[in-house]
Design goal:
The chain is mainly α. The longest helix has 19 residues. The relative contact order is 0.15. It is built from four helices and no strands.
Length: about 90
């Protein structure tokens, strides 16, 4: 778990170092989303999966149809979505 927390911290640092218009910004968002999702799967903290979904949706927005990494963003969004049974009704 310590290594995962460190990786999340480094992913956040990478986002801080890259301006939003950077060509790899969407990749950094996706990387952080995947790590937060992994931590959610281990600890079950909804804030992690919520954050992962928000970050990956932003990455997906930056990868329109025809972008070479759009399909990986779509797959990641499917992977990080919590099971329907864990989503509370609003």
């Amino acid at each position: 778990m310590e290594d995962l927390d460190e990786a999340i911290g480094l992913d956040r640092e990478a986002l801080d170092l890259r301006p939003k218009g950077h060509p790899d910004w969407s990749g950094s968002l996706s990387n952080l989303a995947i790590r937060l999702s992994t931590r959610y799967n281990q600890l079950g903290v909804m804030e992690d999966v919520d954050g992962a979904i928000v970050l990956n949706r932003e990455a997906l927005h930056l990868r329109p149809k025809g972008h070479p990494h759009r399909s990986s963003s779509l797959a990641t969004l499917l992977f990080i979505s919590p099971p329907a049974t864990s989503v509370s009704a609003s």
